[in-house]
Amino acid sequence: MKFMKDSLRELKHVVWPTREETKKYFVIIVSFVVFLWAYLFIFNSLFSNLLFFLRDYVK
Questions:
Q1: What are phi and psi of 17, to 5 degrees?
Q2: pTM higher than 0.90, yes or no?
Q3: What are the structural domain ranges in the chain?
Q4: Does residue 30 contact residue 38 with C-beta atoms inside 8 Å?
């Protein structure tokens, strides 16, 4: 029971982000995920094409 009381007391000290901060962080995270996806897609495509080129070159 003491644990629950302490937890509730600590929750009162939490500073929750505002609606604007949440929107800002959401846009930042989505932008980062899209950038990372594009980077990995391009790198994977280039690496895959390089491997296929080397496979054909070695034959």
A1: -70, 150
A2: no
A3: 22-59
A4: no
